[in-house]
């Protein structure tokens, strides 16, 4: 069943019009050189960017017109993480649940972080100690910050996860742990600079100079295809 559809959706100067359907349960990897349009495609898929042409549909409805409760079903792990530096780890994690709660709940979370037991359980999921619960994000290492952002995403409980280069700042062991968690989500599309990991996914999308040029299973992709996808010409 399709959850997300792009119908001739494009962004002038960044992404040529393309047709794409993401089905529930799919694990998709997005490959391509830096500047190929991967982040732009993720922005279209989560609604943070509006297409200059065409349409993006979430469960058959125009994504730009969807209610907040509908858009909450799409979760994004941003390349720049977008954590709130001045807040604690638990407060940042709880921001993932804002779409399910009232404004009053959000204000209370700023004064006193809520539901610490649930926060601790999610911290364990991403391999962090609950001793970090009350630490400010500004004082964390890069790897810890990456996992806090992932914990916030898990707190959101999205139907579709979009991740923009989530492994770039991680050591191999931690990268594997993060990838495992992403692949456990109901559906995911993950942008990577790691073609060697494509066998972990069911579907490979390739972007080249803003054009979707590849949509295949990992087993159908040859070394020659990858060399062309990452070539400068």
Automatic annotation (TrEMBL):
<protein>
    <submittedName>
        <fullName>Phosphonate ABC transporter</fullName>
    </submittedName>
</protein>
<dbReference type="InterPro" id="IPR015854">
    <property type="entry name" value="ABC_transpr_LolD-like"/>
</dbReference>
<dbReference type="GO" id="GO:0022857">
    <property type="term" value="F:transmembrane transporter activity"/>
</dbReference>
<dbReference type="InterPro" id="IPR003439">
    <property type="entry name" value="ABC_transporter-like_ATP-bd"/>
</dbReference>
<dbReference type="InterPro" id="IPR003593">
    <property type="entry name" value="AAA+_ATPase"/>
</dbReference>
<dbReference type="Pfam" id="PF00005">
    <property type="entry name" value="ABC_tran"/>
</dbReference>
<dbReference type="GO" id="GO:0005524">
    <property type="term" value="F:ATP binding"/>
</dbReference>
<keyword id="KW-0067">ATP-binding</keyword>
<keyword id="KW-0547">Nucleotide-binding</keyword>
<dbReference type="GO" id="GO:0005886">
    <property type="term" value="C:plasma membrane"/>
</dbReference>
<feature type="domain" description="ABC transporter">
    <location>
        <begin position="1"/>
        <end position="233"/>
    </location>
</feature>
<dbReference type="InterPro" id="IPR027417">
    <property type="entry name" value="P-loop_NTPase"/>
</dbReference>
<dbReference type="InterPro" id="IPR017871">
    <property type="entry name" value="ABC_transporter-like_CS"/>
</dbReference>
<dbReference type="GO" id="GO:0016887">
    <property type="term" value="F:ATP hydrolysis activity"/>
</dbReference>
């Amino acid at each position: 069943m399709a959850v997300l559809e792009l119908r001739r959706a494009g962004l002038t100067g960044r992404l040529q019009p393309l047709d794409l359907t993401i089905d529930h349960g799919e694990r998709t990897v997005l490959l391509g050189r830096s500047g190929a349009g991967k982040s732009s495609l993720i922005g279209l898929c989560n609604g943070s960017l509006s297409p200059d042409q065409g349409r993006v549909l979430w469960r058959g409805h125009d994504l730009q017109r969807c209610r907040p409760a509908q858009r909450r079903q799409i979760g994004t792990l941003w390349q720049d993480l977008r954590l709130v530096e001045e807040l604690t780890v638990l407060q940042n994690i709880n921001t993932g649940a804002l779409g399910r709660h009232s404004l009053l709940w959000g204000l209370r979370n700023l004064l006193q972080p809520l539901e610490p037991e649930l926060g601790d359980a999610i911290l364990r999921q991403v391999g962090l100690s609950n001793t970090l619960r009350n630490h400010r994000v500004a004082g964390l290492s890069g790897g810890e910050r990456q996992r806090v952002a992932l914990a916030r995403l898990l707190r959101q409980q999205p139907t579709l996860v979009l991740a923009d280069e989530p492994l770039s700042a991680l050591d191999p062991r931690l990268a594997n742990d993060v990838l495992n968690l992403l692949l456990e989500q109901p559906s995911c599309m993950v942008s990577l600079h790691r073609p060697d990991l494509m066998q972990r996914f069911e579907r490979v999308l390739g972007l080249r100079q803003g054009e979707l040029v590849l949509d295949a299973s990992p087993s159908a992709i040859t070394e020659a295809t990858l060399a062309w996808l990452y070539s400068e010409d």
